[in-house]
From TrEMBL:
One of its GO terms (molecular function) is uroporphyrinogen-III synthase activity. This is Uroporphyrinogen-III synthase. GO terms for biological process: tetrapyrrole biosynthetic process. InterPro entries: 4pyrrol_syn_uPrphyn_synt_sf (IPR036108). The lineage of its organism: Bacteria, Pseudomonadati, Aquificota, Aquificia, Aquificales.
Length: 57
């Protein structure tokens, strides 16, 4: 049996498991990531660029 371990948020695991199961993988879900919105104020001043480290940043 082919297995794959998904260590993402619960929502992402549910979305991403379907292609793996379609290819015959047993999906092992281990939600290690939790999305938590942060409340913060952007510092004032001119910025030349803003860098996001992930698509959910």
């Amino acid at each position: 049996m082919k297995r794959v371990l998904l260590t993402r948020s619960k929502d992402d695991i549910e979305r991403d498991r379907k292609p793996f199961e379609k290819e015959g993988f047993e999906v092992i879900a281990l939600p290690l990531i939790q999305d938590v919105p942060l409340d913060f104020d952007m510092p004032e001043g001119p910025f030349d660029f803003v860098l996001f480290q992930s698509q959910k940043a």
